[in-house]
Design a protein that fits this description.
Radius of gyration: 48 Å
Number of strands: 7
Shape: elongated
Number of helices: 18
Helix content: 55-70%
Largest sheet: 5 strands, parallel
Number of domains: 3
Strand order of the largest sheet: 4-3-5-6-7
């Protein structure tokens, strides 16, 4: 069966089940069926009683339903034969499968064993060779198989040039296109290399034997067309013109097979029209579109709110952890500071808060970027977030005021100092002359002890005062950072909600347009179905009248 070039769209080589082809044969202009009493639709070729050429009416039907079949008939009637072709390519599984699938086409073309060495192939395919002729040398026709994943090498280009110089006819086929998505670019590059070598007239036929095998198993004519095997077979048949004489029964068999295949395609179209499968599919598609008519707005808005809530929880938790870590570090640092260094600690805390705010801003930006990446259109509609200054830790702590505790510490310190002094000078009181002299020493020791106790107590009180101020300041900083997060999320929600509405509105408009198109198509198909069935039945009658003479003459030729 003929197939189309896989580089073409399937709609260019197969019949659209929704729109049956117009009848161009018989009385096509008036829309009437051909007269049953008209002459035979298949005429014998001149000089042969068994080679049949379709009439213009049959040719028009075949052209509408089976364009590659018509190309095969024209190539067959132009050449009248198939011949032996020398295959130049790798001896792998793909080549074996290609030879097997080509052997299923009529007229059968014998392919030689693949020759992987292009230089050796030149000696066996060139008609000018004076050595032992091979099967390929009888026809001077070579089929060169190219890899769909790589470009032509220099050795193969040189071999092609030598074959053309010796008069060998060459056909190029790119096998295995099913395995490479960029085979079209490789084919274009190969054509450029051939044109640079002066072989611009050569074409490369993209084929896939695996697709042909799958189409044969599934009975899918469209997939068989896309495999390219029919197109390659038709070109091989046409290239073998004049190589050998074809027998009449083989020509009649090929013609009958093409007509039968065309009739089968029309019958399948009639079955599809009567089953209403296409109408049911369109109605189902319309129902699906109507079910999602809101453009996914409700789902998108629900997802957006959930993601915003999750982002708020995560960011608030992160801020709380950062503030607690800063408070712990500040308390540890205060315990190590001297009393003179406590005065400059507020500035150091402000610097630390500024650095912490920068880290929080980066976390917010990263989380909002992740959130925007899930919304359609956010990559081009997200405005830059406004950056506020870092929170202030508040006014510096007020000086600590001396109270009753400080005076009490002075009294306790003096008392302890006097007692310590008396204890130290107690041995001197045993000497009457030194008893009076021990009094100043006792007072001096008491005064010194009192001063030390008061100073130590003041340092502890200052640290406690600064520690309390740090706690109050960090509470204020935390509140400002949480407000920063809430503001950023509200602004982002406003922008993203607007983008969701815009995207869903665009989808709603597109859905409405598609629903209108489907409804119009349904009405048109319902109105055109009787005419389509009538046209298909008329083509079947034309093909039936054409198949009968072919089968009759085929039987006469075999007797």
């Amino acid at each position: 069966m003929p197939v189309s070039d896989p580089s073409e769209s399937p709609t260019e080589t197969t019949v659209d089940p929704a729109v049956p082809p117009a009848d161009t044969g018989g009385d096509a202009g008036t829309g009437r069926a051909a007269d049953p009493g008209s002459p035979a639709d298949v005429e014998p070729a001149a000089g042969s009683g068994t080679v049949f050429i379709p009439s213009p009416e049959v040719e028009a039907v075949v052209a509408r339903w089976n364009p590659q079949g018509l190309a095969l008939l024209r190539a067959l009637h132009g050449s009248g034969a198939a011949t032996v072709v020398t295959v130049i390519g790798p001896a792998d599984v793909n080549t074996t499968l290609l030879r097997t699938e080509l052997a299923r086409f009529e007229p059968r073309i014998t392919l030689s064993e693949p020759m992987a060495d292009p230089s050796a192939a030149v000696a066996t395919t060139s008609p000018s060779d004076r050595g032992q002729p091979s099967v390929g040398a009888l026809s001077g026709l070579a089929l060169i198989l190219l890899d769909a994943g790589t470009t032509i090498g220099a050795d193969l280009l040189e071999a092609i040039g030598r074959l053309r110089a010796d008069g060998t006819r060459i056909l190029l086929a790119m096998n295995g296109i099913h395995a490479y998505r960029d085979w079209r670019a490789v084919r274009a590059r190969n054509l450029e290399l051939l044109a640079a070598r002066g072989a611009a007239d050569l074409d490369i036929v993209p084929v896939s034997a695996r697709l042909a095998a799958a189409a044969r198993t599934a009975g899918d004519a469209g997939l068989l067309d896309r495999s390219g095997l029919g197109s390659l077979h038709a070109q091989l048949t046409a290239a073998a013109a004049g190589a050998a004489a074809a027998t009449g029964d083989r020509s009649a068999a090929v013609t009958g097979r093409v007509l039968a295949d065309t009739r089968q395609r029309v019958v399948e179209q009639v079955g599809a029209l009567r089953s209403g499968a296409e109408l049911a599919r369109l109605r189902e598609e319309r129902a699906v579109l109507l079910a999602g008519r809101d453009g996914g707005r409700a789902t998108a808005m629900s997802t957006l709110r959930g993601q915003l809530h999750l982002a708020r929880v995560d960011l608030m938790t992160d801020i709380g952890a950062r503030i607690r870590a800063l408070h712990t570090a500040a308390r540890a640092e205060l315990d190590r500071l001297r009393r003179a260094d406590l005065r400059g600690y507020p500035d150091r805390l402000q610097q630390t808060v500024t650095e912490l705010t920068g880290g929080v801003d980066r976390t917010i930006d990263h989380r909002l970027a992740e959130l925007g990446g899930r919304i359609e259109g956010a990559e081009r509609g997200m405005p830059s977030r406004r950056r506020d200054p870092a929170p202030r830790v508040g006014p510096d702590p007020e000086p600590r005021h001396r109270g009753v505790e400080d005076h009490l510490m002075i009294a306790l310190g003096a008392s302890a100092g006097v007692g310590l002094g008396r204890l130290l000078v107690a041995p001197l009181s045993l000497v009457p002359a030194l008893d009076v002299a021990s009094v100043p020493v006792t007072l001096a020791l008491g005064g010194g002890a009192a001063a030390w106790v008061v100073r130590a107590r003041g340092q502890l009180a200052d640290r406690a005062h600064i520690r309390q101020w740090v706690s109050d300041a960090l509470v204020n900083v935390k509140a400002q950072l949480e407000q920063r997060v809430a503001t950023a999320l509200v602004e982002t929600e406003t922008v993203l909600a607007d983008l969701v509405v815009q995207a869903s509105t665009a989808r709603m408009v597109d859905t409405d347009r598609r629903v209108v198109e489907l409804e119009a198509k349904l009405r048109r198909m319902a109105a055109e179905q009787p005419g389509q069935l009538a046209a298909c039945e008329r083509d079947i009658r034309i093909l039936d009248r054409s198949i009968s003479p072919v089968e009759t003459n085929d039987q006469l030729g075999t007797q």
